[in-house]
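>> received
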Amino acid sequence: MQPQDVDQRHAPAPADAAVGPAVDVARAEAALVEHYPRLVRLAYLMLPSDLGRGRRVLAAHGLVQRALPRGRGRTAVIPAQSPGRDGDAGYAFVRLRVLRAALEATGPRKRLTRRSHLLPLLPRVWGLRLFPRSGGADELALEKRLSDLSGPARAVYALRGLEHLSDADLRGILKAAGVTRAESALTEANGVPAQHRLLSSPEFDPCWLQARPTDLARRRRRTRSVLAAGALAVCGALVALPGGGWGPDGAAAPPYARNPAAEAALDPGRLTRVAPAAWRSAARTDFSVWPARGPLTGDTALLRRALAVWARPGPAVRVSATPGTQTGGPAGPPQLLFAGEVDASRVVLLYDGLRVTRYAEPRDGTAGVALDFARVDGASGAEAVALVLGRADGNVRYLTAPWVTRAAERDLMKPDAPATDLAVTGGVTAPLASPALRPGGCTSWNVLQLTDASGTRLATDLGELVPARLTAGRPGAAGEATSAGGLRAWAPFACSLAAERSAGVRSVNAWAYADQPLPDAGGTGTWACTRAETWRGAGTAVLAQFRMPGGSVGAVVARGTDGPACGPRDPHVLAGVLWKSRTGSWYLLAAGGPDTAAVRASGGVTAVGRGPLLAVRAGRGARAVLEGTLADGRKVSGLR
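>> returned
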């Protein structure tokens, strides 16, 4: 231990120190209560480590609790120093008294003995040893470095790291605290690497403690009746000061306190289980009326593992979530939707009102646990008809809604081919090819076709828990894609759905908004826009696509993100493409929706066309800016 550069007497500030404002006891008391955790952490860091972690904790609390001056009047003036937290003079006053007390307690002629007056009557813990939680290797190394410093140097390091004070402010505070060689303390503290973020670690938090018993045998010898009053020191709860004040967490319980709602969420016996026929009389059709299905709904051990992993996924758990989906534990007991074996896994599906969570563990062994999350807030009717149970060998299995009467598989690229029935057992479909898992080129796009009392609809797997609903038609008046017109609208553009994989897509609509006769007797091209809506609202994607005559698939020629185009709020669109005719000539083709009265091109190509279509000669590689005028005079910009 190096010599201490501190005046050992309780002396006033040096005569040449500037004088600041006076602070009354009530203001100092309020500052102490509000910033109690930070002050105790400062005191703990300033005290030497050779006290032992338990006595150092009690000493730190004692120093801070004794920092208030006696009496209820106004205190002496404060020597000039940094004003403290947000310019609070009361906090600066209490911080200075804590600093003085810590330096005096660790001087060369002082030792914190068991009977030291610096260990106050409160807090007193009988029968327990309290010490902070252990940190990592970095924290232990920093503790060792700090233990080799003198008291003033430790104070410099703590104040610099926690209070972010400049060297000038540190000199002033040290001088006010009676340190005669402040410059030496600054130089000594500079020898320790600046790892200030570690000072916020639980290793240095005397308010977040662990408790262990003392020597039980010795206690039995001393007394036959054991009286143990344990106190897990809680920041702000160790002081009982008049006047009160909020701590950093307000009226919240400590982080380790038991929470009945959180405990109930982990209890398999508290899971919500809906009656099998509840959906028949329910006012709405959504996930909240799905019954619990699957042969393992009574496997308490499996359900307990699923809930525990949801609340506290370990490092070996593969966690995935759709964009904008929170991955925290449930606020209360969730609803059980399914528990059973799917291919080579045991799967549990849970619903908490906002999210669907899928827990999957291997049927054999313990490696490969997965936890998947998907937002489903506001899902009802056509959006709550199926959930993905699992994927394997390029196939996907679904759990269908209890009101689904028929399931089938359809190739979206073959509108005239009939759908193929899928077997459904206990709500679980037979496996069908998943386009989300298929590598290589796109030659087919298999979708799920479901029928219930309200009609038939299509949904597609995009690599997430909830399949995306497919619709077709003009935005604002779109219908299910199962109609003949909807199937023909989707067929050339089905492969563009690959661009929406794992994007949190709720539904995708296809609108064939224009047919354009092509120059040089090139036939008729088809324009369409597809719009993908997401569960989170943001991230909507619009693709403008063009299919040439005789082509089986369309090509994406323009796109937009987070805009109203091609949607219910703005059912208009404008896009263009450079096209080469059979004669070798290049043309700029552009098309708007049916409400477009004129199309103007500028930039690399200058032209104006009446109506929603424009075809004009252009050079190869030319770039143009498109602007359309609607029938009501409003302007619409072209997608890029």
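>> The first strand starts at residue 19 and ends at 24.
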